[in-house]
Amino acid sequence: MEGHPAGISIKTVNLHKSFQSTKVIKGMNLAITPGEFIAIVGKSGCGKSTLLRLIAGLDQPTSGEILAGTEPLTGIHKDMRMMFQEGRLLPWLTVLNNVGLGLKGDWKEEAHLLLQKVGLADKINEWPAKLSGGQRQRVALARALMSQPRLLLFDEPLGALDALTRIEMQQLIEGIWQEQKFTSLLVTHDVEEAVVMADRVIVIEDGRIAMNTRIDLPRPRDRRNSHFSNLVGDILDRVLGHAPPSSQLRQNVQ
Fold first, then answer.
1. Does residue 232 sit in helix, strand or coil?
2. Are 155 and 86 in contact (CB under 8 A)?
3. Would you give the DSSP letter of residue 92?
4. Are the beta carbons of 250 and 214 closer than 8 angstroms?
5. What is the pLDDT of residues 203-243, one digit of tens each?
6. At CB < 8 A and 24+ separation, what contacts does 107-115 make?
7. pLDDT at 251 over 80
8. For residues 102 and 90, is the Cβ–Cβ distance under 8 A?
9. Cβ atoms within 10 Å of 187's Cβ, excluding its own
């Protein structure tokens, strides 16, 4: 409906996930509002990628549930798309046909518009092998946006990019999200990236939410701002285990 966010709400309720005898997600409760941008950080093996896969419908909970809107999420949601660390483009298809992969009907005009939006209007007939890493991720982003998702999941999509290209992609994703207002969930190892992009940053520690920090900074975020630097430092301290649990600043775990 006009005037309402395009995103969908996501809620985990007493969520558990085990792989054989190993408990990876331990009773997690998290509420994400429609159109909200959430970043998840934590050490390797903490459970952040498992949580993303559960919300994506790629894995099923051991117990508890996930709600997409008011409905239980039992598989891959029709309005969900996911971006991975690599573009996962088909090398035998052109850029344009990778964007329209699996679509039927008259989709080429929309694909042209999205490629223009991501700065690749002049690459529509190129092969993926001729693109840089950043350009391949731009194609993957355009492909994800073709279906007008209400939920877009990001699994370290910028992790393999050089520093400047990474910043350009952060700005691109943020701009498109502000325009379309889909719900976003980003898993990243980069705490600064999380603070740059997210409305809230969630720190996961040993399968549980250890910190839930709202980023009360105007957009676009100014990395030179002292409050920005302090937030990055506080969150990084928590990820590295330098901060005691009682120092969870701005916490509003739901």
1. helix
2. no
3. T
4. yes
5. 999 999 999 999 999 999 999 999 999 999 999 999 998 76
6. 107/146, 110/146, 111/142, 111/146, 114/142, 114/145, 114/146, 115/139, 115/142
7. no
8. no
9. 25
